[in-house]
Specification:
The protein is an alpha+beta fold. It has nine helices and twelve strands.
Length: 248
């Protein structure tokens, strides 16, 4: 006996701008039901920037891939997360192997989707940015540009970490840079992380990206950024001041 394939809808949830509550989420809705709401209340679904896009983990291939769909607010190591294994099997996409590292198996069944409809939904969700606010759009465009032209930051011994826009700070973005590079962490060499906070206006996002990219690459960004990661020992070795405690 065969059953009809399930229907997937990817719903983007955006908290009220300026609010400190909530986070941007990509929530999987199956046959009209938010399935994570039934099995996990420790934290939000993953941000769409991690689940969607051209190389998004939600895209199915013949090689099974485990994807984290949600994580506890206090981190996975504390209160768990929800993982599912996604694979392509002929004309179908299969979600199976549900697990929560904090509890073991997750009480959800294997789900089977029509591959054509499934991939169409992932592509549509990946290209629909109508939910973004201006700073989020600028952050996305700027990160794409900087990753396309890595040599412009490398000239200053910097590597892009991320460009983030948070809903509780709707009029600014944060650019995170590694110095000298991210691989220094793995190799046990001195490294620092820098952060630049940049205001965003109502101007055309493409125009703002042009200006911000020029600002970040025309001169050493470390001169105006603040150290936000690494260690005091590394800061001393690399010749940068380590941030002191917040002023009271």
């Amino acid at each position: 006996m065969t059953t009809d394939p399930h229907l997937l809808s990817l719903r983007i949830v955006v908290p009220p701008l300026g609010s400190r509550h909530g986070t941007v989420e990509c929530r999987p809705v199956i046959n009209g039901r938010d399935i994570l709401a039934d099995v996990f209340d420790e934290g939000p679904s993953a941000d769409p920037r991690y689940l969607l896009g051209p190389d998004a983990p939600l895209h199915a291939t013949d090689t099974p891939r485990e994807v984290r769909l949600a994580e506890a607010e206090c981190t996975e190591g504390c209160c768990g997360a929800v993982y599912v294994t996604i694979r392509r099997e002929g004309h179908y996409v299969i979600w199976s192997g549900w697990r929560n590292p904090d509890e073991g198996d997750v009480d959800l069944p294997e789900l089977r989707f029509d591959a054509t409809r499934y991939e169409a939904e992932v592509r549509q969700a990946s290209t629909d940015h109508s939910w973004e606010w201006p700073a989020r759009t600028v952050a996305r465009f700027l990160e794409e540009r900087l990753r396309e032209h890595v040599s412009r930051l490398a000239a200053w011994e910097c590597e892009l970490g991320a460009v983030s826009a948070w809903h509780w700070e709707p009029d600014q973005i944060n650019v995170f840079l590694f110095h000298p590079c991210r691989s220094a962490i793995r190799k046990g060499r001195p490294w620092l992380q820098f952060r630049m906070t940049l205001p965003i206006s109502a101007d055309d996002p493409a125009d703002q990206v042009e200006r911000l990219e020029a600002r970040l690459t025309a001169e050493d960004p470390r001169e105006v950024a603040e150290v936000c990661g690494g260690s005091k020992e590394f800061a001393d070795q690399l010749g940068y001041p380590w941030p002191g405690p917040p002023k009271t």
